[in-house]
Amino acid sequence: MASQLPRERLPEQDGNMGTMVGSPAGAAPDLVTQPHHRFEHSEPQPCQAPGADHDADDMDPEERAYHERFMREAINMAELALKSDETPVGCVFVRNGEVFGRGMNETNRTLNGTRHAEFVALAGILSKHPISDLKETDLYVTVEPCVMCASMLRQYGIRAVYFGCWNERFGGTGGVLNIHSDPSVDRPYPVTGGIFREEAIMLLRKFYVQENEKAPEPKQKKTRELKTEILPMDIHAPKSTPTPPVGASTATA
Amino acid sequence: MAADTAPAAPAVGQLVPLRTKDEVRASLETHTAYVVEIPARFANAVKDAIQDAAPDFKAAEISHLRRVVQFKYLPAHLQKQFYPPARLQRGICSNGDDEPSPASLFTPLPPSDDESCAKAEDTVRFFLLCPTRCFKPADLVAILRKNPPFSVMNIQAKLLYVTVPALAPTSAEQATQWSEQYWPIAYKNTNPYGPHPSLVARNTVEIEPESSSWLALASTAAAEISQLGIGEKVGCVVIDRTRGTSEVIAVAGDCRWRSPHGDAEAHTGPGNVMAHCVQRAIAMVAKKRLRMAGTNPTLLDRSLFCDVPLTEAEKAPYDKDNIPASGYLCVDLDIYLTHEPCVMCSMAILHSRFKRCIFSKRMPLTGGMTADTAGNPLNPGKGLQHGIFWRPSELNWKFLAWECPGAADSDASIADTVHV
């Protein structure tokens, strides 16, 4: 794992999706039996947003078309990132039905593992607009926000988050943790995943069959093949996380 | 149900390793298990009978618990509860090759000082069968009845109940404590739920002598920034110890109240979250690497990131070319903070692959590092319990983390509701 840039090994890009490469041993069977991203909380969550954690599949066609329009813009940013040898994650912030700012991952060029698309977009937006505008702003991002970005968005008071595919490595809005809805001093926000999920995954897979010169000890990537089959939804559903599998094999640090 | 007790307050400046999320869980979770008294020589037969009847039950689940225990090694409260122990009838132990009269085996005899009886007593053992969730009591009794020693004795097994830690201990001290509090523990000198105690001890010894100075430097950075009115009084320092001596790689204070134009803003709302001191320090490390590699570090600069040095404390380390261009993110670097970083910054530290994290003051309402609910004097019993530094089965990096209460000048100017 040490050879990977932070956004480099996302959940849904691995070659052998059928066996959930990179997930803790034994995780996959649980995933297929669980309804996706419906979280069970052992205790009432005081800050739980009503109606948080939606699936794009539950939307009516008109609503879906509205969100797909902005997710298309986010995908365009991710494609730009791919062309720039950056991890293909893109986002747009939307206010009053209009794109308010755009961003793409810049971790490779900046040598900075925190330069995620959300940071890049907000650095542009907040140089011209007050922070309070974010309370009426929604985020569309091709990959689920990581734990860091999920916390940042909550601290800023984002209104809602829409994303493409889940991030099983370090997703912060259901993929691994639930930073958007866990107890916090900040207001929670609702999240909806699965908008153009397959396209978001394919962009990541395209990136991972390329060489990444920045990463030390490069893995053998030339032997990797680009797989084009996208498996059913279940396998990409996030883990239910409150209790980690005890004794599961640990990542190398 | 809590198995752990609150540790004594550490001395000022002493490093206290943080407990991981799984360690906290391991120290809190207990469940109930069945115990039965049997002659020692039947232990394997009973073990096999349980395994055959419950193929899903993995003995490894209770491998941290002694399976077969003599009365005298039981914790005091269980000795009292299970007194008197069943014992072999006198005469059986003296010529053990005889097939004993089964019914007499478990006849409790009045306690005696007789030495041969004491020996006989030792041959009866308390056998830990399995957690109670594996069987209903009546089913378990029925299973035992079909197997030796009960099948040959024609008596009913008497089930006893004990509370045991659900997970393995993470240190020898904990194992000793649990052996007295719950049930004899087999400690394997490992920690499945966090860094090995010897690894933590070795690292503590390495960094403890200088940690107070780095935390003091972080305080200086915090004070300088807050005097300018552009940030909260929090700060951090990035140290490289890989070459024997310590090099200060970056120093950064908080810049959340700095406007895009560089002046101080009104202190309302969250401020510029992306200008927390950890974000600034990480960006400065990256810019130093770009500079060492001959790349213009101002490429992709954005004023909102506030990643240029702004104070005396920040400038000198930033200008020093003391970091290899070939390095990867913040691998092998340590970060010292005046306060526990917020969830965003905790994850930024993880994303950046830091080696060690040391902070002075806990932030129980906003901090992302701590996994327990020890809290602080203002908010005792509180904590978000994310324990981001060590969740290797979920997050793709892990590192060591300590708190150092009282070391940095973390006065009351930072409310517990602030995200550091």
UniProtKB/TrEMBL annotation, chain A:
GO cellular component, one term: tRNA-specific adenosine-34 deaminase complex
Cleaved signal peptide residues: none
Domain CMP/dCMP-type deaminase: 65-184
Enzyme class of the recorded protein, top EC level: hydrolase
Source domain of life: Eukaryota
SUPFAM superfamilies recorded: Cytidine deaminase-like
EC number: 3.5.4.33
Keyword Lipoprotein tagged: no
Reactions mediated catalytically: adenosine(34) in tRNA + H2O + H(+) = inosine(34) in tRNA + NH4(+)
Cofactor (UniProt): Zn(2+)
GO molecular function, one term: zinc ion binding
Compositional bias per record (Basic and acidic residues), positions renumbered to this chain: 1-12
Region called Disordered, residue ranges: 1-59, 230-253
Alphabetically ordered keywords of this record: Hydrolase, Metal-binding, tRNA processing, Zinc
Family as reported in the entry's similarity comment: Belongs to the cytidine and deoxycytidylate deaminase family. ADAT2 subfamily.
Protein name: tRNA(adenine(34)) deaminase
From TrEMBL, chain B:
Keyword tRNA processing set for record: yes
Manganese is among the record's keywords: no
A GO MF label: tRNA-specific adenosine-34 deaminase activity
UniProt-listed SUPFAM superfamilies: Cytidine deaminase-like
Residue runs in coiled coils: none
TM segment ranges: none
Gene3D superfamilies: Cytidine Deaminase, domain 2
GO cellular component: cytoplasm; nucleus
InterPro entries the UniProt entry points to: CMP_dCMP_dom, Cytidine_deaminase-like
Alphabetized UniProt keyword annotations: tRNA processing
GO terms for biological process, alphabetical: tRNA processing
Domain CMP/dCMP-type deaminase: 210-372
Pfam families: dCMP_cyt_deam_1 (PF00383)
Origin superkingdom: Eukaryota
Family, similarity comment: Belongs to the cytidine and deoxycytidylate deaminase family. ADAT3 subfamily.
Protein's name in the database: Cytidine deaminase-like protein
UniProt source species: Paraphaeosphaeria sporulosa
Organismal lineage: Eukaryota, Fungi, Dikarya, Ascomycota, Pezizomycotina
